[in-house]
Specification:
The complex is a heterodimer of chains A (160) and B (128).
Chain A: H1 6-17, E1 44-49, E2 53-55, E3 70-73, E4 81-83, H2 91-95, H3 103-111, E5 117-118, E6 121-124, H4 132-150, E7 154-158
Parallel strand pairs in A: 1-5, 1-6, 1-7
Antiparallel strand pairs in A: 2-4, 3-6
Chain B: H1 2-10, E1 15-19, H2 22-28, E2 32-36, H3 50-66, E3 72-76, H4 85-89, H5 109-118
Parallel strand pairs in B: 1-2, 2-3
The chains are: A alpha/beta (160), B alpha/beta (128).
Chain lengths: 160, 128
């Protein structure tokens, strides 16, 4: 079966509920490109994920266009990870955070030598931010600055 | 997340963006994407299936080495289930989203107490 057509399905759903149509970002240009400078087995990888993951002890996300970022230590105990989000079924993410924040998987890939290493910290936020402008002007530059500080050679991005 | 990918890539760092929504990804058009046809909330696999989670990330991350054209999307071949009824139910039952509360929404009350007790600005990891 073909992939779900989320844009048309959400548009129809909003119309049925009497909501204003959401205007999806459309970029028809050729996206920016930075080639990988060395093999993955020598790369230090960064990670950002938007599934609303936080670590116990941190302030959780709120549900109204929250563009704040949580810093998760790369050696975090997976048992300390939590998930909060207004727009997806959290049950599996709360059972095993690796389904939206693949920290155990990445640590394993480093042990196996597939990756050279990981940043000392990962970055999480909560997607479903309606304002593309706030993402472009605030959240994305903040994440780019953090990845630069972290000295990563490549970045894995995991939305929900 | 595609917007973040474009920004980070423009800052000189190669990115690979996972995707559960092929049409949204194609619209936002990140530099490199790997599409896994699983229900939302399972961007990098099924719970407690570390071998599958590993294969998914190996396939996806390899794209950083192999992709040469900006805007490429690779399909990761695993299926959620033989029965694809989940696709018909996705966003088909009205609005199941939670109200847009503007206060922190903790997974459980113990987290709230812990964050409120230790969440002073001096705590390096509690706020960012």
């Amino acid at each position: 079966m073909a992939p779900v057509e989320y844009i048309s399905r959400i548009r129809d759903n909003y119309a049925r509920l009497g909501y204003k149509p959401y205007s999806w970002v459309r970029n028809a240009d050729i996206p920016p490109w930075a080639p990988l400078s060395k093999p993955l087995s020598e790369c230090r990888l960064g990670l950002a994920a938007s599934g609303g993951i936080y670590a116990a002890g941190q302030v959780a996300f709120h549900y109204k266009d929250d563009i704040s970022i949580r810093e998760i230590p790369a050696n975090v105990d997976t048992k300390d990870l939590r998930a909060t989000h207004f727009a997806y079924d959290l049950s599996d993410a709360r059972t095993d955070p690796n389904v939206v924040f693949p920290v155990d998987t990445l640590r394993r890939l480093v042990r196996e030598g597939f990756l050279g290493g990981l940043a000392g910290r990962f970055h999480t936020f909560m997607g479903g931010i309606y304002s593309a402008r706030r993402v472009t002007e605030a959240l994305a530059p903040a994440l780019a600055a953090r990845f630069r500080e972290d000295g990563v050679d490549a970045v894995l991005l995991v939305p929900v | 997340m595609g917007l973040v990918a474009r920004h980070v890539e423009a800052a000189g760092i190669p990115t690979l963006c996972m995707s559960s929504a092929l049409d949204i990804t194609r619209s936002v058009n990140p530099p490199r994407a790997a599409f896994l046809d699983f229900p939302l909330g399972h961007t990098t696999g099924k719970p407690n299936q570390p071998e599958l989670q590993r294969r998914i990330l190996v396939d996806a991350l390899s794209s950083l080495e192999t992709m040469t054209a900006p805007g490429s999307v690779r399909s990761i071949p695993y299926r959620w289930s033989d029965d694809e009824g989940w696709k018909e139910r996705a966003f088909a039952e009205g609005d199941n989203r939670l109200p847009r509360h503007d206060t922190p929404q903790y997974q459980d009350e113990a987290d709230r107490r812990r964050a409120e007790a230790g969440g002073a600005p001096a705590c390096p990891v509690c706020r960012s």
